[in-house]
Design goal:
CATH class of the largest domain: Alpha Beta
CATH topology of the largest domain: Aminopeptidase
CATH architecture of the largest domain: 3-Layer(aba) Sandwich
Radius of gyration: 24 Å
Strand content: 25-35%
Number of strands: 12
Shape: elongated
Number of helices: 12
Bound molecules: flavin mononucleotide
Strand order of the largest sheet: 1-2-3-4-5-7-6
Amino acid sequence: MIRFIEDASERRKISRQILEALPEWFEVEESREQYIRESAEQPFWAFVSKDENQGFLCLKETGKATMELAVMGVRKEFHRKGIGRRLFAAARDYAARKGYEFIQVKTVRSGVYADYDITNAFYQSLGFKELEVFPKYWDEANPCQIYVMSLKNAINTISTRHSYRGEFLQESVPEADLLTIAKAGLDAPSGCNKQTTDLIIVNDPDMLSKIKAQLDPPVAQTAPAMIVVLTRRINAYRDKCFAVQDYSAAIENMLLAIVELGYQSCWYEGHITDDDRICDKIAAVLNVPEEYDVVCILPVGKAKDDFHAPSKKPLIERVRFNRWSQ
Ligand SMILES: Cc1cc2nc3c(=O)[nH]c(=O)nc-3n(C[C@H](O)[C@H](O)[C@H](O)COP(=O)(O)O)c2cc1C
């Protein structure tokens, strides 16, 4: 299990325990002690199984747009079990959610020491790309390879998007950003290109309060903006209506655009389309014409609280190649 460790002395204890067990990489006492000292002050994750700390990773900000994978270690007996990968995924999601654009990591260049060749191969397998080698950054015997990874790409945004139900910062969202999000939604495919989805962007404080007043139990009460999703039941051909698929594709595109621009949101559909028909009350507030249904609201704003990804079933349980079973 991955745990985010908050307590500085626990961070120090875990990093010491693991780095001292990895002399192949952390033999030099002075630099090992520096890693341990610094790790106490940084975002820190441990992999814990049966009350045993098997690995850890910590990040360090090296610029406004960049986090560095400052140090990571997995005890040798637990190598090749996917622990490093899971620690990195947690750290990458965190950095992306905090709005950083890059992660960098430094190591000794490939072709110098066999142990570091393994490290290089591991970073490359995570998706890091070679940025530059600095031959004298540490010393000539240890040429420094810098790897970099962009956090702003579609695949990363998809895997770092999660439903945010916490409070929002009281910062307004620029109209240009709201329009970019709406355009991403309407750029989605629709059955026979019938474009059955429409949107109402709500950023006027009075209108926002009127919508929030309908949300019982209350959700998204601190959101500085909302996008209300409307659908119209138009048949794509014969009696085939793809309106649900159309607005679902639009919503997913908007959620991704929201995260890409550094905001957070949640797909509130169940909440407003239940028996109490909050959606109809919202439609009345917004003067929505009769042929449209309100199906979803997406709050948009900067997250105030931290949040963690819900667990999803392993890929292997839900994806098969070629047939269901042999
Ligand atoms: C069709 C649909 C309706 C949803 N309705 C609600 C809702 O009313 N309230 C809510 O809190 N989350 C709602 N969600 C968000 C899901 O609960 C959430 O996507 C799911 O738990 C997975 O978590 P993740 O989005 O963080 O990956 C809805 C999602 C979908 C796709």
